[in-house]
Amino acid sequence: MDVNPSGAEPLLLPEPKRLGALARLAPEPMKVVLNWGRRYSLWVFNFGLACCAIEFIAASMARHDFIRLGVIPFAPGPRQADLMVVSGTVTDKMAPAVKRLYEQMPEPKYVISFGACSNCGGPYWDSYSVTKGVDQIIPVDVYVPGCPPRPEALLQGILKLQEKIARESLEERYRTAGPSAAALQSGLVKPPAPALEGDAR
């Protein structure tokens, strides 16, 4: 509070920007550093399902070389990956596997839908066995159109995702309240009641 020398009412300084309970643990410069680290160390879990996967492979080769953007292709598995690139036709039979592998990825995780088939079903949108877009089963961050898209289109999609990561607030992304303690314990087996001291069995 600043005191006015004329003896009038004190001048109130503006309130600091309230960022939630964790703001004191992660100030703004730290958030910039964390987002910078996430932005330039994306381990990719490639989910190649059809011809778009060939374009993904071309984007990772020497001519286009998306490793220079901080994107590391071919993570060992979903638990080491940050980014899932779904490239190709997602069928209803394959959809549960895509969802299961997405759920195995640690947070924060991102998804690029690469090609018309994974965006909306592509030329097979009216087929009885094709999912009408991978966003029906998992959330998608960036859509790359084309049938098939060029490798340069994937590079542009990666740049758009990196711009999104650079300005993202993890507090807003994960603000939703988790399940209650009663819900977490609902399916658990209850332990036996402790025996009283004078109780002989």
TrEMBL record:
Name listed for the protein in its UniProt record: NADH-quinone oxidoreductase subunit B
EC supergroup of this enzyme: translocase
Binding locations of [4Fe-4S] cluster: 51-52, 117, 147
Keywords (A to Z) from UniProt: 4Fe-4S, Cell membrane, Iron, Iron-sulfur, Membrane, Metal-binding, NAD, Quinone, Translocase, Transmembrane, Transmembrane helix, Transport
Recorded GO CC terms: plasma membrane; respiratory chain complex I
EC number, as in UniProt: 7.1.1.-
Bilayer-spanning residue ranges: 40-59
Family, as annotated: Belongs to the complex I 20 kDa subunit family.
Subcellular localization(s) per the UniProt record: Cell membrane
Ranges of residues in domain NADH:ubiquinone oxidoreductase-like 20kDa subunit: 51-161
Organism listed in the record: Streptomyces cellostaticus
Function comment: NDH-1 shuttles electrons from NADH, via FMN and iron-sulfur (Fe-S) centers, to quinones in the respiratory chain. The immediate electron acceptor for the enzyme in this species is believed to be a menaquinone. Couples the redox reaction to proton translocation (for every two electrons transferred, four hydrogen ions are translocated across the cytoplasmic membrane), and thus conserves the redox energy in a proton gradient.
PANTHER family membership: NADH DEHYDROGENASE, NADH-QUINONE OXIDOREDUCTASE SUBUNIT B 2
Region feature Disordered, mapped onto this chain: 176-201
Cofactor, free-text remark: Binds 1 [4Fe-4S] cluster.
SUPFAM superfamilies: HydA/Nqo6-like (SSF56770)
InterPro entries named in the record: NADH_UbQ_OxRdtase-like_20kDa, NADH_UQ_OxRdtase_20Kd_su
Keyword Cell wall biogenesis/degradation carried by entry: no
GN (gene name): nuoB
